[in-house]
Structure formats: structure tokens, C-alpha cells
Amino acid sequence: MTDSNNSEYIFKAYVVNMQAYDAGERDVGAWLHFPAKEEDIQALLDEIGLPPDATPDMYFMDDYVCNIEGMRPLLPMYGDIDDLAALAQKIHNLPPHERDKLDAVQSSPLRFTDLEQFHSYPWNTDYFTLDAEIKDDAALGWSWLHQQGLTEIPESCQGAIDPVPFGRHVREMEQGFFTDKGYIMCSGDEWQYMQPSQKPEHEEKPSLKAKLEQSKKECAAREPKPNKPVERGPEL
Known about the structure:
The protein is α+β, with helices and mostly antiparallel strands. Helix content is 36%, strand content 14%. It contains 9 helices and 6 strands, in the order E-H-E-H-E-H-H-H-E-H-H-H-E-E-H. The protein has helices at 18-22, 38-47, 81-92, 96-106, 115-120, 137-147, 155-158, 163-174, 208-222; strands at 11-17, 29-34, 59-66, 128-131, 177-179, 182-186. It has a 3-stranded antiparallel β-sheet with strand order 2-1-3. It has a 3-stranded antiparallel β-sheet with strand order 4-6-5, with helices on one face. The radius of gyration is 31 Å and the shape is flat. The termini are far apart.
């Protein structure tokens, strides 16, 4: 096995030439770090004896090493390198605080249970709330007291307040969890399984004159029309 030192990867896969492996060769694989550039993929395919246009049925992933907790069991043995590269790139492109939030999710009971959740996380970051400053019930309790405006208490009396029960109650109510990254909980937003379509950059608003003209037309349409006089014949 060949490997290179790359500490920035999301995960790495040991890719094996399937035909050579089935023929009895065992040293026919190499490590590929993700996200992977096109030249990295081509170099990997060449190293394991596959053509540049190799399809997923010509190789398999024999092992993974992940820098995201709980992700390894969800990665496929038989998958598409391009799909894996796209997934890793999405996660790599996350802002640091959203990556910390993902790490917090994965180190809590809220962790993802299928790979599709990792794919859709970039447009669902607001599904979770992370407070990096809160890491125990006492800190959570004081935070809650501050939000309630209950901390305007003489300093001499603050020692009589035990914030832990408050924090424990809030944590149980919110179903939140403490992690190395801070306090993580669900925000209450709905999970979006499909990426929202982009909104138009600018919609031209009607001018004031156009609005007045439209208003006149609508008023005219609502006004009752006068009854047409009934035509009568000459009196006899």
C-alpha cells in the first residue's frame, strides 16, 4: 500500500483494481485522499493499472480512514470515486464554524445515520444550533438566567444561586448535548432533503405610475354598470 501524508483530507479510501484482485493479486491498490482533484484521481487509476475512464465496476474501496466521527461505516465499498470526491468537496468548503457544528453533531446522539445526510448538510446547517462557549450544565444555566434577565442580583447574593439545576432542566427540555465543540441542539427548522433553488437575483418592481394605473383599472372593473334603458314602442 502506498500512502502520502495529507492532514487536510476529509477521508481517504484504499482503492483496489477489482479485476486484478479477482485474479489473485493482492497488492493492487492505493490510497486516495478526498477531496480529490481530477489529476489525483487519474494518477491513482494509473497506479493501480486502470484506464483514465475507469467505471465504478472496475474498482472497489477496500478501506477508509475518516477525519469525521461516525462517517466511516457509512461510506460504500462499491461506489463512484467522482461522487465521493463531490461529497468530500462539499464538506471541505464549509466555513469553520459550520464544520465545528458538524463535528459536534457527529460526537452526539444527533449524529447522521446515512450518507445522504452528509450530502445535504451544507444547505441544512441551520437545522442545528451550536454554542461553543457552553460545555456543562452550569454554563448553560447561567446562559439561561442571563436570557431571562435574572442576573441583576447583588454580587454578594450570586453565590446562593446554583445554575446547574437550571442548566439541566434547559438541556432536557431542548434535548441538547454537550460536546468538545460546545452545546449542540436542533434549532426547530425542518430538514431540507432537496437543495433549495436559487432565488432570482432581482425582480423589477412596478413604478408608482404603473401601480396607479392598475388600481384605476381594478376600481373601474368593480363599479356597477348602469342599467340599459328598456326600449318601448310608441304609445297608442
